[in-house]
Amino acid sequence: MTESLDRETIMGHFSGILEIQEKLSGYIHRRLCVNCDELVDEEWLNKRKEAFKFIRGLVDKYAFSKKLPRDELGILTQSMISHLLNIQHTFLRVLVLIDILQDEPFNEIFMDSLSTISSKVQEMMDALKKMVNQRAENLNDAEITLEILMKLEREIDEDNIVICRQISVAAGSDCDFASYILRKIVAELEHISDYAKECAEIIAEI
Prior knowledge:
CATH architecture: Up-down Bundle
Order of helices and strands: HHHHHHH
CATH topology: Methane Monooxygenase Hydroxylase, Chain G, domain 1
Oligomer: single chain
């Protein structure tokens, strides 16, 4: 019979997965950031290739699920894996949506507020990885990080309404398709924040 993984080992696997998802969130924020230094097309092509490579490589990192303990820890771990997969697939959808808008003038269409929501998603991914590591060392610090994650998730929910309204104004009636895709990107980023919050709550229980 295969020996089941212990809590410490499972948290180590979570940390490895979140490290890559943290990089993905950074790439996406960098592409959507209006105030960042201009991202030339050639540079984005390289980042895009790296992002898709990371997503493909993440599949192998879930192989540890074959050794989950058959108890409460195993149930919580399986639930965490489901949310991590949802985050991964949503990042993929965002990258595809960005591809769809490749011929659009990014710096004219994307507003500061879209950059704001992508930065908060990046903050959540950073905090989630931090929380995994804190759970093994300092429970009090992990609880503080959990509160930060919850606050960011609420802010993203509130920002979503404002951002979609700004997209409509900025895009105008002549850019209905672009406006639709932009709203889709905002919605997907909001979904990532929801999944990240669920992950944080599970980590607090493990």
